[in-house]
Please model this.
Amino acid sequence: MTHTRRSHIEERGGASLAGAAANRAAMVLVVALAALGAVSGCKRNRVESDVTGVSLTIHYDVAVGFRSFRITGLVGNASAFQPGMLPDPPRPLTKGTETLVILLPDALAGQTILLRVDGLAGDTVVGNGAQAVTLQRSRLVEGELTMGPVVVCGDHVMRMGFEQCDDGNTVDGDGCSSICMIEPAAACGPITCASGCCQDGVCEP
Model:
């Protein structure tokens, strides 16, 4: 039987993670956000350990005005799960630290997943963060990241997890693409490089 690829997002105070994990063959992602309106009490906030996934701690500056986080994941260049958004509905995030639990299929054990977090104020992205973790079967792997400024391609500042290069422009064909991804060496040559010099697929000054 073929399972439909879908995701489910809930807050920590909702249904138990154990129950969600029991259905993980058909689920790609379960995200639970601690401390955002969750019911108090140790049992309600405890995360079961017999699951495959990531416990991700996000640090942020409350002055930025985040109201929600959009979570995506990549294994290589492929999406690992459908993007999730928390809290839902959005509301002011004022604690400076939040913890997300991302439950994933056991089949991803051993893979390194790049987690990306976009911080939003309304519909506007006002910060980004990224962290790579290697998944282990039946374990919640710890991950931690700090939200930084919005990534801007072409500003000469390379942000790991979002950019593979940043050559200070948004021009294709010079070894670093208009979205700051490394282009194949064939894309870089005497015609596309102002100096006429190309080294390892990147134009030399």
